[in-house]
Structures are given as structure tokens and as C-alpha cells.
Structure prediction request, 235 residues.
Amino acid sequence: MFQLVLQHIDERILLFINSWGSIWMDNFMYLITNRCIWIPLYVFIAYVLYKNFGLKMFLFIASILILTIIGTDQLCGSVIRPALKCLRPSNPANPISASIHLIHGYRGGKYGMPSCHAANTFALAFFVMLLFRKKWLTFFCFAWAILVSYSRVYAGVHYPSDIVVGMIIGIGMACLLYYLSYYILTTELVQQAHLFVGRDKELYFKKNGYKYISIIIFVGIFVLITIMMCSFIIK
Prediction:
């Protein structure tokens, strides 16, 4: 009974969000949900990491971050989804699909629980937050992750519950890999091998004094404004 109530609430929220919009909003959310549109943001996150940590530590952090995203994506897409087999609301085999407003005919894959978009974006956002611990950067990253996740519900390819579960997995994976990297840097084996000098580790562990943080925010806002402008052009 309780499960049916939750499912009903899930569907009502989905249909409300999916039905609220316009042609401009459809275009806007269609671009927001496209991973490739955010490549400039990813590039400048890498640039800021390099400028703050140097080449050796940058390669270490980038490897951990890539492992975080790949691990999150594979856990959600290749393990949990096939196990749960929860149809996307946009899937024609799902009865609710008849009530879903599709954006440019986009339906996504077969299964949707949990959302890989939500898991990956929240994993990246939380890892960056743990790394830099800057209030405005944290606010921006989470606002970005929420916007991308919202676009998936608006597009009708995910239930809100898919987003929530994906968010939890993404944050959990970010915490796991961040603190694992923290542990690796403090192990006796790494110290004896002199893989990272003292200054490298100090840079990783410090909580302030980072430079160029605002570049990430400015690039993200620039991409967002570009998306808003392009949304008027797409037909």
C-alpha cells in the first residue's frame, strides 16, 4: 500500500513537471540535458586543477575523478538498472508514456532507475566541493547538478525517484573515492616511494588559498547563457 502511494506521488510530480513548459523551455532543457554541451566546463575544471596542484598531483586527482565518474556510471547503468528493470516513463512499454510530453522525440534508453545523469553530475559536483571547499563554487556546482537532473524529469525520461537515487549514489561514490585518495596519499608505501613530495600533499589537504576558482563559475554561467540564447533559435 505504502509503495503504491509513493509510486502515485512519483508519477504526479513527474507529470506536473513534464507538462509545465513552452517551446523555449523544451529547447532549453533539451540542451541542458546534453552532456556534450558542458565540455567547456569540464575543460576549465581540469585547467583550474592543473593551475592549483601542478602536473603530478593534477594527474592523480584527474585519475581519481575519472574513476569516480566511470564507477558511478557503470554502477548505475550496468549493474543496478538491469537488476531493477524499472522502465523509463518515456518507454512505450510503460503505460504512463501515453501521458508524457517528449522533447524532440527523445525517449532515452529502456530502463531509468537510477538516473546516470543525476549520479554523474552530483558525483562531479560533490568531488569538486570536497576538493576546494569554496562556498560559491559549491553553490554553483550543486545548482548545476540540480538543473541537469531537473531536465531529465522535465524531458519525461526519469521519475523524480530515479533522480534522488542517482544523487545519493553519486554523492556516495564521490565521498568514497575522495577519502580513498586522501588515504592513498597518507599511506607509508606512497611516502616511502616518494611519489608525491610534501608540497604536493599539502596542496591536496589545504582548505583555502586556491586560485582561479571563479573561472569555473564564469565558464559555467557563460555556457548557461549560451544555451538560453540558442533555445530561441532551435525549431
